[in-house]
Amino acid sequence: MTTPDKNAIAAELTRSRARTALLTDAVGEDDLTRQHSPLMSPLVWDLAHVGNQEELWLVRDVGGREPVRQDIDHLYDAFKHARSDRPALPLLDPAEARRYLAQVRDKALDVLDRVRLDERPLLAGGFAFGMIVQHEQQHDETMLATHQLRAGGPVLSAPPPPPGNRRVRGEVLIPAGPFTMGTDTDPWALDNERPAHVVDVPAFLIDAAPVTNLDYLAFIDAEGYDDPRWWSPRGWAHRNEAGLTAPMHWFREGADWHYRRFGRVEPVRKDEPVVHVGYFEAEAYATWAGKRLPTEVEWEKAARWDPETGRSRRYPWGDDPPGPEHANLGQRHLAPAPVGAYPAGASPLGVHQLIGDVWEWTSSDWHGYPGFCVFPYAEYSEVFFGGDYKVLRGGSFGTDAAAVRGTFRNWDHPIRRQIFSGFRCARSLA
Ligand SMILES: [Fe+2]
């Protein structure tokens, strides 16, 4: 990847802010301040939190400037208040939050103008700015998930994704051998993606495409949700406690399944990757199908390893940044695309839709790579290592291109399914 210059950095900051505005201008004051689910913050909290992180890092740390609103730091510290408690805090109202964001952005752009990008490690390749761009885009995806949980009519719209291709089916053999996982060189890669290290991986088979709704309906029809044989003991206990019977947002009318998507009710599309399933559901499906979930290592080798050169690519299709022909990213469409919709985005060995559409659950626990170093703060990822989290890879239709790549790692509790999460299966050869 070429190192972004100041113009490119400013353009990324502006692009993120346009998305934040789109997501928060789409609803009125009441929807901005209300909590749509105990799993989520009120949208107005995300809004001001985005500004507060930008103030902390770009204005105060990088710029060395006076605080804009030090008095509100504690309100927007994600570690001080659980999401469920945030509506009761004396938060900035929507108009105040918007003014605050604009004030901070003015100062951040001024800092960008004046700072030398080779001054200190935090600024190398524009990293501090890239971290803030990714942070805002990550909250935009969270806000999109809040939109999905909001009751009421549609307020967001987007064209449908491109059509699929039924021939993308079956499994792809990834031969045994070493590959380079993680990165030392990607300028905006986060600490948990580093360092690059070689991993020797036994041969395995991986699904050419994510598991579709048609595949998943077969599991439902086979009474997979009612058969403890397919579930891990923890998964089965959770299935019973939560009363799981289908992916989140699905409901049945007669024989037909529908889902509610951003305020619209639609019949379940059979050729689309299944979305809004938790880790335990993915694990149960895989067991029922005679397969398993891929490890994080396997997922990354399938996504990045080029058998011709032995090199690890930045994306499955190569090192070029994602274009609309490669992957369904950035809320360009408000749904995963049908399987086979992105032939130009496939890996050299023919694995499709690894980037975009749905986050893919892996069987790996969340931990740091060998030689991990905190950069620039432990609360980004290190404090979560070893917790009750599973790794997800690849980004979803709601993930921006700036916030995903072949090395990017996400993590969440195995019971979570308000995120745009799906999966694909793998198998060992032996
Ligand atoms: Fe945050």
UniProtKB/TrEMBL annotation:
| Keywords, comma-separated and alphabetical | Iron, Metal-binding, Monooxygenase, Oxidoreductase
The EC code for this enzyme is 1.14.99.50
Q: Which residues bind Fe cation?
A: 49, 135, 139
Binding residues annotated for gamma-L-glutamyl-L-cysteine, in chain numbering = 83-86, 412, 416
Task: Look up the record and name the cofactor or cofactors this protein needs.
Answer: Fe(2+)
| Pfam families in the cross-refs | DinB_2 (PF12867), FGE-sulfatase (PF03781)
Annotated stretches, region: Disordered: 310-330
Q: Where is the Sulfatase-modifying factor enzyme-like domain?
A: 169-427
Q: Which reaction does it catalyse?
A: gamma-L-glutamyl-L-cysteine + hercynine + O2 = gamma-L-glutamyl-hercynylcysteine S-oxide + H2O
The record's SUPFAM superfamilies line, in alphabetical order, gives: C-type lectin-like, DinB/YfiT-like putative metalloenzymes
Which Gene Ontology terms cover its molecular function?
gamma-glutamyl hercynylcysteine sulfoxide synthase activity; iron ion binding
Function in brief: Catalyzes the oxidative sulfurization of hercynine (N-alpha,N-alpha,N-alpha-trimethyl-L-histidine) into hercynyl-gamma-L-glutamyl-L-cysteine sulfoxide, a step in the biosynthesis pathway of ergothioneine.
Family statement = Belongs to the EgtB family.
Query: NCBIfam families given for it?
Result: egtB_TIGR03440 (TIGR03440)
Name the PANTHER family for this protein: HERCYNINE OXYGENASE, SULFATASE MODIFYING FACTOR 1, 2
Q: Could you identify this protein by its name?
A: Hercynine oxygenase
- Recorded source organism is Actinoplanes cyaneus
